[in-house]
């Protein structure tokens, strides 16, 4: 995670890149799972910019879990946002802790994506929501994949169809669609399966 350690001040200063319209869209996707006062995990949430927005618009508590201390240190204090240093593959939370989870432009950085998916299915309550925002590695985005690998990052990107199939293997069923305004980014919006009776 060397790239994120040295670039943390830049993320702290310029990391809030979400428009009000985009945040409202995420709120609408997550609202069926997150009641006011509920709890959301922002996995790989870095400096907490999106976490603050979600805490305000969803009127909920948000926990940011990130493995890079230099990123977490850049977080601005917020009464409903908590930071925890840790990895996606071994989350320090009890089962079914969260109503929903969001991962923004980070899943391709996880070195053990299968381990992370198992942990997501564990820490999000049954019928809880999972929102994963990612880049589609098709077309010219292959250059981004190459750039990530040159920076020493895993750069393990999924196409939308691959993402849906991947999460389904871990009991997280949903659908993938490209975000409005282009085909470089897509979202997976899913639900953690209820335990079988």
- What's the CATH class label? Alpha Beta
Overall body shape: globular
Count of individual domains: 1
Fraction of residues in H or I helices: 25-40%
Say how many strands there are: 7
Order of helices and strands: HHEHEHEEHEHHEE
Gross CATH architecture: 3-Layer(aba) Sandwich
The name of the CATH topology is Rossmann fold
CATH superfamily: Vaccinia Virus protein VP39
Order of strands, main sheet, comes to 3-2-1-4-5-7-6
Poorly predicted sequence stretches spanning 5 or more consecutive residues: 3-15
Largest sheet, in brief, is: 7 strands, mixed
How far apart the termini lie comes to 41 Å
The overall pLDDT, averaged over residues, is: 86
Structural class: alpha/beta
Concise synopsis of the structure shown:
The protein has 197 residues and is of the alpha/beta class. The chain has 7 helices and 7 strands. The chain has a 7-stranded mixed β-sheet with strand order 3-2-1-4-5-7-6, sandwiched between helices.
């Amino acid at each position: 995670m060397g790239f994120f350690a040295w670039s943390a001040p830049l993320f702290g200063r310029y990391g809030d890149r979400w428009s009000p319209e985009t945040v409202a869209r995420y709120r609408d996707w997550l609202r069926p799972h997150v009641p006011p006062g509920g709890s959301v995990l922002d996995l790989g949430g870095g400096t907490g910019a999106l976490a603050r927005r979600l805490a305000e618009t969803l009127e909920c508590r948000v926990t940011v879990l990130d493995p890079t201390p230099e990123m977490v240190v850049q977080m601005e204090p917020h009464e409903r946002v908590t930071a925890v240093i840790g990895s996606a593959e071994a989350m320090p939370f009890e089962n079914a802790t969260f109503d929903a989870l969001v991962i923004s432009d980070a899943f391709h950085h996880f070195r053990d994506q299968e381990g992370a998916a198992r942990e997501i299915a564990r820490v999000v309550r049954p019928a809880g929501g999972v929102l994963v925002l990612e880049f589609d590695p098709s077309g010219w985005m292959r250059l981004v994949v190459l750039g990530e690998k040159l920076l020493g990052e895993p750069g393990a990107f999924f196409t939308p169809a691959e993402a849906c199939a991947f999460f389904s293997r871990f009991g997280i069923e949903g659908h993938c669609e490209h975000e409005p305004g282009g085909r470089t980014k897509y979202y997976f919006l899913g639900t953690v399966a209820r335990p079988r009776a």
